[in-house]
Write a structure and sequence with these properties.
The structure holds 2 protein chains of 2 kinds. Chain A contains 9 helices and no strands. By secondary structure, chain A is mostly helical. By secondary structure, chain B is an alpha/beta fold. Chain B folds into 2 domains: 153 residues, 2-Layer Sandwich (Beta Polymerase, domain 2); 141 residues, 3-Layer(aba) Sandwich (Rossmann fold). The radius of gyration of chain B is 26 Å and the shape is elongated. Classes of the chains: A mainly alpha, B alpha/beta. At the A-B interface, helix 5, helix 6 and helix 7 of A face helix 8 and helix 13 of B.
Chain lengths: 272, 349
């Protein structure tokens, strides 16, 4: 049953990628809408999958790499769809949907057998802490897509090379503004995520901060985005500089998520 | 059997001296339609006359007689013998004629491929023919399809996308830099013609404020009045650039009016908000090195015309797609018309 669900979801997302890609090439609005609704229908099944697994396991399904990937992909899509409902823009889907697909494909390649929750994780804080952190990650992922598009479009404008992408990508002012917004929201979520984590750490381990690799790296990520916001608000940075920092932040975030789990053993090694 | 012929000339086949003789203004058009309709062998007719083409679409039971009548009329109207005129005209029959009209309506045959005007002109020509009782069943069918396909090509392909003139290219770039033009301020330096045209275009897209700077203030005031803008002294330009999002310069100053340092200062003052500089001056008015400054986008005349060229290329590649659509439509229309106009059916009506 679970396999069927995962396959259905992934196929819908792949179809959505195709639709978005064709939309990008042909600029036919109908294809963009198709991509959006394919994404939405996949999302519905995705919700069902999370609920189903949660009910079976009787806990918030975010333990282990498999579950965290499925949950992360779900959040990225949720954040994307939420922005898309307001923006009705479509182009962003061309960049976000492949990311979601690769997260799901990665998850599908892993062992999805259910294991009992580690005793340390049996706490109501789990859902709060993980949801907040991953919400932050999802916003940063969105910001990353905006930053990539920004740099692409800006390079075209600067070098005056008008290529096929030029007509298809949105204006840079828009990309810059949305990148900023995504990071502002992501920063709030990550901050709350770190705070909730440290409160939980105080309860579970007796200390707010343990300099565990995950903690250190999430601090690094947090600092990169703090630099972004500081540069933007206090120093008047805009555009390309901000986009580069957004991409660096995304790199730090990926390392916090994956790198730390595999390379640096510590208190947070639940993904293995 | 349907029997449609088109006889015409356009900007590719005839020089302007010939085209102007063959052009029919609105008042002459009605007269021409009526007299041609009455001539022997012409059953139905539409006359399309624009600044780049004059075409007679005729439906005639016997093609030779119909065409001969049209030739006679053309000789008369242009005051030249047919023998001299033949080199400028083309004649297409049936399937080719249908395809030709569809191409014209879809703006594939235009001087600027993808322009929108010709579509309206085709419609007007058809309505004029109906008004004068020159168009009937055949032309209804033919032009109905031309209008449908013209619309379809415009929505299904990108043929009309991408600016192909300097002033519209500037707008297109502005719209790729700025999310909206509604709240933007434009500063125009020098009251040149292309500059004025570009500002007019920007103004019609809803920019909020226009500031005009010129050596002679009176001229600046004249121009500013057109856009409900303000006129400023020439030495105030740097100061006003802090406010302006789009700066358009078209003076004949022999040296750079705006230097790299100027823009550096301006960018600091405007908190790095994007600045779009359009330099239409020759020699150039703005130091080309300003393009290296972050969030500054400088385009000169050559850059803009390169944009136009790139867009034209894109349009031409879209035209290929459009041709496929048209060829299919022409095929099915010919089949339909041949079936509808079978002799037994026609004789009954």
């Amino acid at each position: 049953m679970q396999q069927v669900l995962v396959r259905t979801i992934t196929s819908l997302y792949i179809l959505s990628v195709f639709a978005y890609f064709l939309f990008f090439v042909t600029q036919n609005k109908k294809l963009g809408t198709t991509g959006f609704f394919l994404g939405v229908s996949g999302f519905v099944f995705h919700c069902a999958l999370l609920v189903w697994r949660g009910v079976l396991l009787r806990h918030f399904p975010v333990s282990g790499l498999y579950e965290s990937l499925v949950f992360f992909a779900w959040l990225v899509l949720a954040v994307y769809l939420a922005t898309e409902v307001r923006l009705r823009q479509g182009t962003n889907g061309v960049f976000i949907m492949p990311l979601v697909v690769s997260l799901m494909a990665y998850a599908a390649s892993l062992d999805s057998s259910r294991r009992p929750l580690a005793p340390a994780l049996q706490s109501p804080w789990l859902s709060v802490h993980v949801t907040l952190c991953f919400l932050g990650y999802a916003c940063f992922t969105l910001a990353f897509a905006f930053a990539v598009m920004y740099l692409w479009q800006e390079r075209g404008l600067k070098t005056k090379k008008i290529d096929a992408f030029f007509f298809r990508l949105p204006p840079i002012e828009f990309l810059d503004r949305l990148g900023y917004r995504s990071i502002a929201f992501g920063f709030i979520f990550l901050t709350l995520g770190i705070i909730s984590g440290s409160v939980w750490a105080q309860n579970a381990w007796g200390r707010f901060w343990n300099w565990d690799p995950k903690e250190t790296w999430s601090l690094v990520t947090w600092l990169v985005y703090l630099a972004y916001l500081h540069g933007r608000l206090a120093l008047g940075f805009r555009g390309a500089k901000c986009a580069v920092v957004a991409i660096a932040g995304f790199g730090a975030m990926l390392f916090t998520y994956f790198g730390v789990s595999f390379l640096l053993p510590g208190l947070h090694s639940y993904l293995k | 059997m349907m029997n449609i012929r088109v006889l015409g000339l356009n900007h590719k086949t005839a020089p302007i001296e010939i085209r102007e003789r063959a052009s029919f203004s609105n008042s002459r058009l009605d007269e021409a339609l009526r007299s041609l309709r009455a001539s022997p062998g012409v059953e139905e007719l539409v006359l399309l006359s624009t600044c780049n083409r004059t075409e007679f679409y005729v439906s005639c039971p016997q093609a030779d007689r119909g065409l001969a009548s049209v030739w006679e009329f053309v000789e008369d109207a242009m005051g030249m013998p047919a023998a001299k005129l033949k080199q400028y005209f083309y004649v297409h029959g049936n399937r080719d004629a249908v395809e030709h009209l569809l191409c014209v309506a879809a703006s594939l045959d235009s001087m600027v491929v993808g322009e929108t005007q010709v579509f309206g002109q085709v419609k007007d020509a058809y309505f004029a023919a109906r008004r004068n009782n020159a168009a009937g069943k055949v032309m209804d069918c033919l032009f109905g399809e031309a209008i449908r396909v013209g619309k379809k090509v415009r929505t299904d392909t990108q043929i009309g996308k991408g600016a192909v003139s300097t002033s519209t290219a500037a707008i297109e770039l502005a719209r790729k830099i700025f999310e909206t033009l509604q709240d933007k301020v434009v500063l125009i330096i020098g009251a040149g013609k292309i500059g004025e045209l570009t500002v007019k275009n920007l103004y019609s897209r809803g920019v909020s404020t226009v500031i005009v700077a010129n050596r002679t203030l009176v001229k600046a005031q004249d121009l500013a009045r057109q856009f409900c803008g303000t006129a400023i002294h020439f030495d105030g330009i740097i100061e006003h650039m802090c406010r302006a999002d789009i700066v358009l310069s078209s003076t004949s100053a022999p040296h750079f009016l705006v230097t790299r340092e100027d823009i550096c200062t301006v960018m600091r003052m405007r908190n790095n908000a994007p600045l779009f500089l359009i330099d239409l001056g020759l020699p150039r008015n703005i130091d080309p090195a300003t393009n290296d400054i972050a969030n500054v986008y400088l385009y000169n005349i050559d850059d803009l015309s390169r944009v136009c060229d790139a867009n034209m290329k894109e349009r031409l590649s879209e035209a290929k797609k459009a041709r496929a659509v048209i060829s299919r439509a022409a095929e099915s229309l010919c089949e339909r018309m041949n079936a509808d106009l079978r002799p037994d059916k026609v004789s009954a009506s």
